[in-house]
Amino acid sequence: QIEDAPEGFTSSSGRLSTSHQDNSLILKHFFGIMKQFRQFQQDGDKYVADDTKINELGRQEEESLFGPIILDIAHKELYSSLEHYCNFTIEGFRAPNGEITKAEGSMWIQRPPEFLFFQLQRVVFDKENGAIKINDRFAFEKEIYLDRFLLENKEEAIQINKTINDLRKRVSWAQRFLIFSLLYKNYPLRK
Predict the structure, then answer these.
(1) Sign (positive or negative) of CA dihedral 148, 154, 155, 161
(2) Enclosing H/E stretch for 168
(3) Are strands 118-121 and 69-72 parallel, antiparallel or unpaired?
(4) Residue closest to 64 by CA, chosen among 21, 22, 24, 111
(5) Are strands 123-126 and 130-133 parallel, antiparallel or unpaired?
(6) Which of 20, 83, 142, 187 stands the most exposed, by the fewest C-beta atoms within 10 Å?
(7) CA-only gyration radius of the chain, Å
(8) Could you report the per-residue pLDDT of 133-155, keeping only the tens digit for each?
(9) How many Cα neighbours within 13 Å face the side chain of 97?
């Protein structure tokens, strides 16, 4: 439970939240508002988790404050890591009927903070070796554009991501075909 929350914050079930009307300097400068969406499958049909309000599209929707964004350095650069942070899968999600299933989630920035902080997750835990520090390089752009992560651009960003994923699949197929062709060009198929 959060005690003595700063002015402008309210606490419910241990989470910090605020209203849109709050103009506290701390909130305005260092915290943004993010909207989260989650859905899961149960018995082949898509459902929503039952602990938050449900929007008109039938998906779980939750609004919350966010501060620093924790980035996984395995993605090597900001936009890939931020994409991974904002679109995630929850393995082992327990559906209301008790079935263990997989849930999909996405987070969209409704109001970014004036100062956006990132934290690089450089430590991973291994059962055998304990904590392992990763010193891999991570690239940041000089200017950061959040347009594709904003709630107001959600529908357009989803369509663009579908196109990008389709193009990546085509490139992957073309690369495999090219490698196959190069490897076997000297070995014609027997008739």
Answers:
(1) positive
(2) helix 154-184
(3) parallel
(4) 111
(5) antiparallel
(6) 142
(7) 22
(8) 999 999 998 999 999 999 999 99
(9) 9
Number of H helices, E strands in the chain: 3, 11
Per DSSP, the three-state class of 76 is coil
SS3 176: helix
CB atoms within 10 A of CB 40: 21
Torsion of CA 148, 150, 116, 105, to 10 degrees: -90
Q: What is the pLDDT of residues 19-76, one digit of tens each?
A: 544 568 888 889 999 998 888 776 666 655 544 444 444 456 778 899 999 999 989 9
pLDDT at 172: 92
What's the chain's length in residues? 191
> Which two structure tokens, joined as six digits, stand for 183?
């490897």
Tokens of 157: 């960003």
Tracing tokens 């709050």 back to the chain, one arrives at 22
Structure tokens at 73: 């350095």
Pair 82, 117: CB distance under 8 Å: no
Region of 91 (left: φ > 0; alpha: ψ -120 to 50; beta: rest) is beta
pTM: 0.67
